[in-house]
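Worked example 3. Consider a protein that binds pyridoxal-5'-phosphate.
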Amino acid sequence: MLDINSIRKDFPIIESTVYGKPLVYLDNGATTQKPLCVIDKLRDGYLHHNANVHRGVHFLSQDATDLHESARQRVQQFLNARESAEIIFTRGTTESINLVAYSFGEAFMNEGDEVIVTDMEHHSNIVSWQLLQARKGIVIRHARLNELQELDLEHLQSLFSERTRLVSLTHVSNVLGTVNPVKKIIDYAHSKNVPVLVDGAQSVPHLKVDVQALDCDFFVFSGHKIYGPTGVGVLYGKREWLDKMPPYQGGGEMIKTVSFEVTTFNELPYKFEAGTPDFISTVALATALDYVEAIGLDDIMEYEHQLLTFCTDEFHKIPGMRIFGNAHEKSAVMSFLVGDIHHYDMGMLLDKLGIAVRTGHHCAEPLMHSLGILGTVRASFSFYNTEEEIEKLVAGIRRVSKMFGM
Ligand code: PLP
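Given these inputs, the predicted complex is written out as structure tokens:
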């Protein structure tokens, strides 16, 4: 089992106080805190390894390039991709999805062609396709959820047609915690010759991912949600797709030769990495992946599940509690409302007790529409959280409920 006391020492910020109260940080779905080793790596990068990558013959540039390319190999290993050229560094999940929507859309989608998403998508996996819709007239179809807020697989399958070109769905819902059966969906989609993009923003920090075992065609995630730095993310894509897709942006690094008459593009992965990459952050992301794997994703999963069960049991005892997301397979996220207390009031008052939760639509407005609500309060857990912190959350919710006469 995990040594939580020792793990917590790696994250000084979670031992800080707000309004004179110990911080209880339960907004890990939005971003995770960074362990000291990641913070040190960023500092070390700027102190000792800072020179632009890929372009210099001098020592420092080659050193920075080696570190950056080793980080790519680390991500390849982490996802079990076939080759490091299938790992594209981006700014995050959002940019990765936009890249696919633009470039896959450019190569493989025409007016009337369809993409299937789900009702639980983050805006980044909806609006990116709407931009393509505006550009090319594609059609967005969306699969609904059942009463437990799990994907309705029959409905999803019924959306496939002759015009389906891609399924793009989240692995884990940032609002509901629902873990989607992506392997099953990928197998079904492939039986119809349709590729699948998996949004792993909320899955990689909590469960083991093997892109070859999943056989997904694209997989995307953000560094900052897996204890890494902001500003860096990943697009994994199968070479067979990436090779056929045009560049997303033009600039340095993504070209082989440029003239005013003809420009030729670089090979993978550089074709999709125009401009100077965030080479200090890619290296620190690799350190974050080392950190997570040293703790062990199996142990993380088990511990976080324990937190989720504890929190669920405690929440069920709170009068007026409504939990959104009751999937059989669920990650450690609790979205809730109590009576008719506005989510914003609950969040503001919990904050005054030192408890950081998120409120609102969580960048998933269509999901809110399908649930018939404006927003929720969301507590999202990490392996550095404890049952004592959940007890504080529960006591805080009870206190706020009392203030509202419940
Ligand atoms: N997809 C999901 C499921 C998310 O939870 C998030 C962020 O909360 C995103 C995409 C967007 O991630 P980012 O803002 O890091 O690009």
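Take a moment to read the result before moving on. The radius of gyration is 22 Å. The pocket of pyridoxal-5'-phosphate is lined by residues 92-94, 122, 124, 170, 174, 199, 201-202, 222 (CB under 6 Å).
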